Amino acid sequence: MEAQPELPSTEVDTEMEVEDDQIPPSNSKDPPPILRLDQSVVNRIAAGEVIQRPVSAVKELVENSLDAGSTSISVVVKDGGLKLIQVSDDGHGIRKEDMPILCERHTTSKLSKFEDLQSIKSMGFRGEALASMTYVGHVTVTTITTGQLHGYRATYRDGVMEDEPKACAAVKGTQIMIENLFYNMAARRKTLQNSADDYPKIVDLISRFAIHHTDVSFSCRKHGAARADVHSVATPSRLDAIRSVYGVSVARNLVKIDVSDNDPSNSVFEMDGFISNANYIAKKITMVLFINDRLVDCGALKRAIEIVYGATLPKASKPFVYMSITLPPEHVDVNVHPTKREVSLLNQEVIIEKIQSVVELKLRSSNESRIFQEQTMDPSSSSPLATNQDSQKDPSKSVIKSQKTPVHKMIRTDSLDPAGRLHAYLQIKPSNNTERSSCLTSVRSSIRQRRNPKETADLTSIQELINEIDSTCHSGLLDTVRGCTYIGMADDVFALLQHNTHLYLANVINLSKELMYQQVLRRFAHFNAIQLSEPAPLSELLMLALKEEDVAADDNENDDLKEKIADMNTSLLKQKAEMLEEYFSIYIDSNGNLSRLPVILDQYTPDMDRVPEFVLCLGNDIDWEDEKNCFQSISAALANFYAMHTPLLPNPSGDGSQFYKKGTSSSSINGQGNDTTEDEYENDLLSEAENAWAQREWSIQHVLFPSLRLFFKPPNAMATNGTFVQVASLEKLYRIFERC
Ligand code: ADP
Ligand code: MG
């Protein structure tokens, strides 16, 4: 901790002596004495939590200005905020008589009793921010209230006003200046000085405020700079605000989105915002989220949106998202975090799911129109190929679109997409590429494909496999999958789903395996990669798998044989490495180490315990001779590996809990000992298992089902092989309940 205990203050002198006497020798087992920290240390530690970096101070100050009803807020920063942060506003100002206690801890004008928290609308309420700043920096406040002839200025240290407020000239509102932030926290100052300064973070923060509070004008600049880095003027149009802050290239690629629900038994909220379309390409997601006008983070919502983008627009999978959510104030717990940055919501899961599905719908429809244009563009493709791996086309919509867009205005004229100009040369694969982020890469790979006739042939076999999926798709199940709601896991294998008035049990292992298989084919040769933290030698993986295979058999005896098999398979896979890498993103280096695996569904990594089995399967079960069989069997092996199998450790929340009791075999002997205490469990193993199962359940809900809805073509076989079982029809159940 940065705060060096500066204990020698007067009131603790006696305690200090006691402490000196009793300092235990280092090898003593006596517990060290507990001492009361000096108040100034306590305050500084607490302050360091509220004000973690310069940008957190700026956030607090700007929120205060907003709370004061300002219409114009300007921020000036020197040295990343360490030398100076100055925030000026034109709000209601601070009364002179309040100035003496302004910077004491827990002094606020926004909250007087606990119940007020339930309906708090202001951003601040703890009365902690200004106080904190005075413990870690030098604070000067200049302020004037309406009707006053002049303003007042006062400086503060450690929560205390240093002198009587001095009369001074002032313009409407308040100006707060913090100098030498963290001057008394050497370690933090040093880390901050060494890292990139906070100025870009501050610019980012003000940009976010500016696009939400469109009735306030913001500016942010470096001290001494003539130009502001953020400069917004109040405007009634959100899109204009975004354009002026984030630029035309962002604003022109946004679509409006909104959704609301007003069902008290379910969720009550309104959301509106803007999300980027397929043309918006960025390296990182930008997620600007306001909940009840409070700038917050919500990791779960962010992930949920990323999944939808990854699934729908893999090439534009890092979106720009602005969302403003309003809920009844009593549904938001703002008090979960000292910086009020993370909030928790009533019915969070339901709200996230609703938002996720409108985003999905929006993207799917914008994606469809895009796909269509690409197809019309491509004169060489005679059949309407599945140009985008993820598109679920609706021909009727395409026709409508086709009438809107005159042929001569289609992609060839799209300056954003130079690759489009090569369309005429391309056969099948290039149309897969049109959404590519980097135009140059896209052009390069298109050219490579033209030079390499083999590639086209490969794709014919892949195309055949994809056609097989399409032609054996069960339309009834397709409706069910697209329209179902995931209710929960009924047991380790079956999920409970509702579709219209029917309840189904669905086998998630079968479903995920088939989905992975279909996705491998659709992403063929276009995978992103998962990098293993350490390259894994194939020979060891193979030995592991071989040993696992016959645990029952006598050990050692066959080890020689196993080693031979492992060696043979290793050299076989090394031979195939180039192909495995190019088409499946399975990377095997020249030393026979596995170091990369493909991303088949975004946000999902397979269970690494299953790598050995997968490698063995690659070595043993692939038909390398026939191209189509080869691709099919590799895809199937990957699918089996990535499927959402039950974790190898038994489910600790079910019967599996027995497994984690210490000395399970003997515990039955000392019979009645039913009052198990925690100590009797293998805690590490238990928590590992709990993690694995929780992770799997999360993936099933947030990755598997959303992806199934988007991409899955359920094969006919699934209607009869027990993958889907209808368990009840709600109409019948209602009838039964009516009789009761
Ligand atoms: P909180 O915002 O939680 O109330 P702060 O420490 O941030 O606590 O601010 C303490 C009080 O100072 C606020 O309640 C408000 O009355 C006053 N205040 C702070 N900044 C401003 C400002 N820019 N304009 C007017 N009043 C302010
Ligand atoms: Mg505040």
Count all strands and give the number: 23
Principal-axes shape call: elongated
Please state the structural category.
alpha+beta
Cofactors, ions and other ligands in the entry:
adenosine-5'-diphosphate, magnesium ion
Average of the residue pLDDT scores? 78
Helix amount, in percent?
Answer: 40-55%
The percent range for strand residues is 15-25%
Over the alpha carbons, how many angstroms does the gyration radius reach?
A: 31 Å
Number of helices: 24
Low-confidence stretches: 1-24, 370-457, 665-676
Separation, N- and C-terminal Cα atoms: 64 Å
Q: Let me know the largest β-sheet.
A: 9 strands, mixed
SSE layout:
Elements lengths: L12 H10 L16 H12 L3 H14 L4 E7 L5 E6 L39 H8 L1 E7 L6 E7 L2 E2 L4 E3 L4 E7 L6 H9 L4 H14 L4 E6 L7 E2 L6 H9 L1 H4 L2 E10 L3 E10 L9 E6 L2 E2 L3 H14 L7 E7 L5 E2 L10 E2 L2 H30 L17 H10 L24 H5 L5 H13 L1 H19 L3 H9 L1 E5 L4 E6 L2 E6 H16 L5 E9 H12 L9 H17 L1 H8 L2 E2 L4 E6 L12 H11 L5 H16 L21 H4 L15 H29 L12 E6 H10 L1
Parallel strand pairs: 1-8, 12-14
Antiparallel strand pairs: 1-2, 2-7, 3-4, 3-7, 4-5, 4-6, 8-9, 10-11, 11-14, 12-13, 15-16, 17-18, 18-19, 19-23, 20-22, 21-22
The protein binds adenosine-5'-diphosphate and magnesium ion.
Outline the structure in words.
The protein has 740 residues and is an alpha+beta fold. The protein contains 24 helices and 23 strands. Strands 1, 2, 3, 4, 5, 6, 7, 8 and 9 form a 9-stranded mixed beta sheet that branches. A 5-stranded mixed beta sheet has the order 10-11-14-12-13, with helices on both faces. A hairpin with a 5-residue loop joins strand 1 (72-78) and strand 2 (84-89). The termini are far apart. Bound molecules: adenosine-5'-diphosphate (ADP) and magnesium ion (MG). Residues 60, 63-64, 124, 129 line the site of magnesium ion.
